[in-house]
Amino acid sequence: MNWHEQVVLVTGGTGSFGRKFVEIMLREYQLEKLIVFSRDELKQHDMRAAGFDHPSLRYFIGDVRDRQRLERAFAGVTVVVHAAALKQVPACEYNPFEAIQTNIIGGRNVIDAALNQGVRHILALSTDKAVNPINLYGATKLCAEKMFVQANAYSGKQNTRFSCARYGNVVGSRGSVVPIFLEQRATGKITITDSRMTRFWLTLEQGVRFVLRCIEQMHGGEIFVPKIPSMKLSDMAGAIAPGCEVETIGIRPGEKLHEVLISEDEARHTLELPDMFVIQPAHAWWRKEHWQQARPLAEGFRYASDSNPHWLSSRQLNELIEAGSGHDEKLGQPEPVRV
Hints:
Helices cover 35% and strands 21% of the residues. It contains 11 helices and 17 strands. It is globular and about 60 Å long.
């Protein structure tokens, strides 16, 4: 892909992912145009005031719930990264209709607007919580994944292609446990839900770079999953706040003990590459000759945070936290450690 010729739009562009995405694109890619689409004028003003101001950058106020506004924004756009969503699990549980309107109906609006405007590449962000979901946020993301994969059947002969990127928890993002631990450290007491709990982890920088690689390689219909490390919540607390008292408060409603990025059922039509997995669509329109360089997974494979062969050490976690506030170049293979 020749990025110099692309007009790129990111929905939810003032969020954690959106800001890091814009930062990297402005710093390293010379796009024809980069559009930040979001509904909060104050956050757009704050971004511009923080230095996100460039001749190629445009700010577009709008809501993914408004299809007409999306169609206006998508005019002339060649690449869309769909990052807008309601992500807070408790907020989605308490406001289910709002979560559905944004995460599902909003996703449909993005699909319709992209098809109508002839956008070439659309990549939607998903989450490990979409696999065997037990909360509404995960359920809405599962629905969104299904919609974006099947949207390829609606594009017909036009070159509009849809794919998804599914990954785990982001170090330092809003809602992440890391900022909570850093804040609690000053009190001398850390609260964790369960000492056995494990999670997948990556930085915002790693997430953005993974998304860019997916856009460059997508045929349309894939769900891309990066190979990322896991860590126990108790080990994370000890690494961030050594010597602090640890109180176990119990798993909250809607939380899992361990997260899964690829289920056993999905593994049957998933391919493996050195740095990621590619979940292929189970539809007649999918061309089997795609991804011939990848290899199938073993029977019964399951990619879960508790059985992940790669684990973060305390040193690596602190490096990730430091990188999360600066620049981290690429996903690497973490060294295995015992937890």
